Structures are given as C-alpha cells and as structure tokens.
Amino acid sequence: MTTWPLPPPMARAIALAERASASGEVPVGAVVMRRGEVLGEGHNAPRGLADPTAHAEILALRQAAQRLGNERLDGCDLWVTLEPCAMCAGAIAHARIARLYYAAPDPKGGAVEHGARLFDQPQCLHRPEVYSGMGEERAAALLRQFFAARR
C-alpha cells in the first residue's frame, strides 16, 4: 500500500488535534485557507475556554473572519480532522465556505454525511463542496487513543 503525504492544511489540522489532546480536549483541529494562505486555525477548546461553542471549526472560522474583517469567507476552504457536527456545519454554511475537507467520519455526531446531513436540507442556503477521508487513519487513531485513555 502506498502512503501519500497529507496536504499541508490537513497535516496542520492533525497537529492542532494533537495539541488539543495534549491539553485534555477532544482531538479535533481545523484550518481555514484561501489561495494557499492560512487565515484561521483552531483546536477543540470547550473545556479550557468554558465555552460549549469552542469547537475547532468555530475557532478557525472566527479567526479567519476577524482577519478578513468579514463574516463571509467566500473562496475559503476549511480543513478539519473530524466530520463537523450540526453546529459547525451550520457555521460553515453561514460563512459561505467554498470547500470542506474532513478526515474522519463521525457516525455518532457528524452532520455532513451522517445524522442531520445539514447541507442536504432544503433550508440550507449555502452548500460547500465536501471531500472526506484525507488523513482519516491518523485522525481516527487520535480519537480512539484519546477515548481509550479515558475509559
């Protein structure tokens, strides 16, 4: 089996997920890119920030929006290590993210290809292109290790 190197944005998202895990947070990392430039990044931090909305995607989207001075992130891509939940998928739609890349599926809490399938709903006003599976093995291993250590 040939192993291909991860694109730099996904490699960075995985590094951020590792940082989250080291700080006791669920290991999820996210990076917002536009034309090869990192505009925002984040890792899960709801416990550390005492904020239930402090998911990796939300933090990365907020940082990118502040950097651009605009709530619309037209032409931006979001790279994340885990399939976004309903809250994050809603934020992705509102931010007008062009492309979503996620590594591992989340059959329990995901809302893109599982659960609510938010982007498939007629009420969803913006649908990004979605690509999954890139970096799935590494991202899934981080999650398994994290939860196994807590059982």
Written description of the protein model:
The protein has helices at residues 8-22, 46-49, 56-68, 86-95, 136-148, and strands spanning 29-34, 37-43, 77-82, 99-104, 129-132. It has five helices and five strands, in the order αββααβαββα. The chain is globular, with a radius of gyration of 14 Å. By secondary structure, it is of the alpha/beta class. 36% of the residues lie in helices and 19% in strands. The chain has a five-stranded mixed sheet. Helix 3 runs parallel beside helix 4.
Q: Could you say which overall geometry the principal axes of the C-alpha atoms support?
A: globular
**Share of helix among residues?**
25-40%
Uncertain stretches of 5 or more adjacent residues: none
- Along the chain, the helix and strand elements come as HEEHHEHEEH
What amount of the residues lies in strands?
15-25%
The separation of the N and C termini measures 33 Å
Can you count the beta strands? 5
How big is the Rg? 14 Å
Strand line-up across the major sheet: 2-1-3-4-5
Report on the biggest sheet: 5 strands, mixed
Helix vs. strand class: alpha/beta
For the residues shown, what is the average pLDDT?
96
What is the helix tally? 5
